[in-house]
Design a protein that fits this description.
The chain is α/β, with parallel strands linked by helices. The chain contains 14 helices and 10 strands. The structure holds S-adenosylmethionine.
Length: 392
């Protein structure tokens, strides 16, 4: 969990029964349950929702402050120590994010990848307000429970961060002192066999972060042409054996559809034998995850919109976990930070109408040796930060 000491949040029920009930609840139509106060609730003037959960792909929730949208106390979960909640995710570069974003009372932040709520919590602990979002309803439910003691300064919205301006316009929040995106999947998502992110555990070939998204990895694996599969494995996985893996997939699926993670992993291993520590299916699973969730395009959409939502001197921080994401962040920051654009076809450099950022991290910030030792998953994390220029 987060390395910063937490104040005890009042959340009760034993972790196991709480978790099981949560999963049961979110599997039902109509989640989030109105008894949790997922309906209109605003501790902040001018912010909130008039309607209950609308269902569908984009949903949102203000967490129950304990007074409830209708003035009543929340039905559940009752109180106990938040530390007893099941493990969800260990935040990476937490200290560095706090140092760069400089949270404090009177400031407001947007966390577009709420996950287990670790980064949001660090901002809340320093007195800031946070609007957070995630496309995974389990993350929204978990983090809002964990952070309920901050409910008068925190709200969570379910949705894809590529649509964040539309989601925010609906709730009427203005500009931010800082925005954080910690891209990728959480440990909880990775370890949930039913999501299909892991080739080490058998599960459906799903790989969707948003369970309501229309396309699963099985859909792509069983319907794309061999050429399309090769493109995905190369573009999103930089997989050196893309061709032979795609050929093997096409051959196997002609006999029977490929439905599970272990089926796909075995096909890959049959043509791309294990070398060193890395499982031969690693890059294909990365590629399929990026394709299913359209991750790079979503990141570009988010980065294109983010600067306009920063106050002057407000900062945007992006944590990525592989070079494809890091390259997108680096290039978008460079674009917004360039006063002029120079192209071969221009007689001379032209002023850049998008110029509004200053890059603060010339090189990406990497985790310390101590962090990598205590959380090996952090080793590939890279943090880039840029700052909004003052208004002209
Ligand atoms: C690495 S985890 C974030 C962990 C979090 N910062 C913490 O400290 O616990 C990434 C989260 O971002 C979410 N996510 C990834 N892409 C997203 C997108 N395009 N829109 C909304 N949420 C997204 C995932 O569902 C996941 O919960």
């Amino acid at each position: 969990m987060a390395s910063i000491a937490l104040p005890a949040c009042p959340v009760s029920l034993s972790p196991r029964s709480w978790w099981e009930r949560l999963i049961a609840r979110i599997s039902r139509p109509g989640f989030p349950h109105p008894a949790w106060g997922w309906q209109q609730l605003s501790a902040w003037p001018g912010v909130g929702f008039a309607d209950g959960y609308p269902g569908g792909h984009i949903s949102r929730a203000w967490f129950n402050t304990g007074r409830g949208g209708n003035g009543s106390a929340p039905e559940e979960p009752p109180s106990e120590d938040a530390a007893k909640l099941p493990f969800y995710h260990e935040s990476v570069l937490l200290k560095e994010v706090v140092e760069w974003l400089q949270p404090g009372p009177g400031k407001i932040y947007l966390d577009v990848t709420l996950g287990g709520g670790g980064h949001t919590e660090a901002l809340l602990q320093r007195g800031a307000k946070v609007v957070a979002m995630d496309q995974d309803p389990v993350a929204i439910a978990y983090a809002t429970s964990r952070l309920r003691c901050y409910a008068d300064r925190f709200c969570a919205i379910r949705g894809n961060f590529r649509n964040f301006p539309d989601l925010l316009k609906e709730i009427g929040v203005g500009k931010f002192d800082g925005i954080i995106a910690d891209i990728g999947v959480s440990t909880r998502q990775l370890s949930d066999a039913s999501k299909g992110f892991s080739f080490q555990k058998d599960g459906p070939l799903d790989l969707r972060m948003d369970p309501d998204a229309p396309i699963t990895a099985a859909d792509l694996i069983n319907t794309m042409s061999e050429e399309e599969l090769i493109r995905i494995f190369i573009d999103y996985g930089e997989e050196p054996h893309a061709r032979r893996i795609a050929r093997a997939i096409v051959k196997h699926r002609a006999a029977q559809p490929i439905r599970t993670t272990l089926q796909l992993a075995a096909i890959i291993e049959s043509v791309s034998p294990r070398k060193g520590h890395r499982h031969p299916a690693t890059l294909v699973f990365q590629a399929m995850r990026i394709a299913v969730n359209d991750e790079l395009a979503a990141l570009e959409d988010f980065l294109d919109a983010a600067p306009a939502w920063l106050k002057p001197s407000g900062r945007v921080a992006v944590i990525s976990f592989h070079s494809l994401e890091d390259r997108v962040a680096k290039r978008r920051f460079q674009h917004f930070a360039a006063p002029y654009i120079d192209r071969p076809e221009f007689p001379e450099p032209r002023p850049n109408a998008d110029h509004c950022l200053r890059v603060l991290t010339r090189k990406p910030v990497e985790p310390s040796d101590a962090e990598i030792t205590s959380n090996p998953r952090s080793r590939s994390a890279r943090l880039r930060v840029a700052e909004r220029l003052p208004e002209p």
